């Protein structure tokens, strides 16, 4: 018997499942091609894996791919069922995969004009754009020294499929700056701002242990933040990248409660005392 399930991703991609194969297509050919190639080139570990890509090609006005359909728990179920040992293991492996990418990265200066161009391309409130530009100007430097290298791009819990011994990473994404810092930003989008919990609550789903998951996220956030504070670029530019990350999410969001949370969070990051960025 063949089961078919249709769905649409947040960026407009079409997804359907037949048997044990997942089919995905997007009219944004260049971007989707990059995402699939990132998944193909992903170096699996004992813990983190990714669904096998079986085929991909351009067909008409769309880029299409076929991959193995992986079944498992979503993040809400996983965190409801997990004990401290499992959460420690997940946190350690997340740090490990980012550190491995950092080890293979190179430091490069990224000119602030790239950030100006990006913020002007995002469809958000003009006043918010001006505030973000003001924030960039107050960093008092023309370029930002960042690690440039491989990264997942959308390393959130919602893009993880949890099994007993493995976690499958899905929905790789590109970024306007190719830096592993983006993965720290995305995972802390979860652990600091409770992203997947907000999405779950916005759907009026109440059958989960809200307090337990919040405690687990906060526990992981402290470990992740403490670990990466050893890097100067993290201390200097985490807020900048998180502001851009959240601004990029705004045009795709359709829930008022989440939109309000994003605006409030961006304002908080902008209003935090700017650290001295004159030294490199």
Could you give the topology of this structure?
Blueprint: E1 4-8, E2 14-18, E3 21-26, H1 29-41, E4 48-49, E5 53-59, E6 62-68, H2 75-81, H3 84-103, E7 106-111, H4 112-121, H5 126-137, E8 143-148, E9 160-162, E10 167-169, H6 181-191, H7 195-202, H8 210-228, H9 232-249, H10 256-271
Parallel strand pairs: 4-10
Antiparallel strand pairs: 1-2, 2-3, 3-6, 5-6, 7-8, 9-10
Helix pairs in contact: 3-8, 4-5, 6-8, 6-9, 9-10
Your description of this structure?
Helices cover 48% and strands 18% of the residues. With 280 residues, the chain is α+β, with helices and mostly antiparallel strands. Strand 1 and strand 2 (14-18) form a beta hairpin. Helix 3 (84-103) runs parallel beside helix 8 and helix 4 (112-121) runs antiparallel to helix 5 (126-137). Mean pLDDT is 91; it is low at 1-5 and 275-280.
């Amino acid at each position: 018997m063949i089961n078919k399930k249709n769905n649409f991703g947040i960026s407009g991609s079409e997804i359907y499942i037949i048997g044990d194969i997942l089919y995905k297509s997007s009219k944004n050919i260049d971007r989707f091609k990059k995402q699939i190639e990132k998944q193909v080139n992903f170096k699996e570990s004992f813990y983190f894996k990714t669904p096998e890509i079986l085929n991909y090609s351009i067909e008409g006005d769309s880029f299409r791919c076929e991959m193995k359909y992986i079944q498992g728990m979503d993040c809400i179920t996983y965190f409801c069922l997990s004990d401290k040992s499992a959460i420690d293991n997940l946190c350690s492996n997340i740090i490990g995969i980012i550190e491995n990418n950092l080890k293979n990265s190179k430091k490069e200066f990224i000119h602030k004009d790239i950030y100006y161009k990006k913020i002007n391309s995002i469809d958000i409130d003009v006043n918010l754009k001006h505030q973000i530009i003001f924030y960039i100007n107050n960093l008092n430097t023309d370029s930002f020294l960042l690690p440039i290298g491989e990264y997942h791009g959308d390393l959130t819990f919602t893009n993880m499929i949890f099994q007993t011994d493995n976690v499958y990473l899905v929905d790789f994404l590109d970024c306007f700056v190719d830096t592993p810092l983006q993965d720290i930003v995305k995972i802390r989008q979860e652990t600091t701002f409770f992203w997947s919990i907000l999405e779950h609550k916005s759907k009026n789903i109440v059958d989960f242990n809200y307090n337990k998951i919040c405690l687990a996220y906060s526990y992981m956030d402290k470990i992740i933040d403490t670990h990466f504070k050893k890097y100067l670029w993290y201390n200097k530019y985490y807020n900048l990248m998180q502001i851009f990350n959240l601004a990029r999410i705004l045009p795709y969001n359709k829930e008022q409660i989440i939109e309000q949370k994003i605006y409030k969070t961006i304002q908080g990051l902008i209003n935090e005392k700017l650290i001295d960025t004159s030294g490199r």
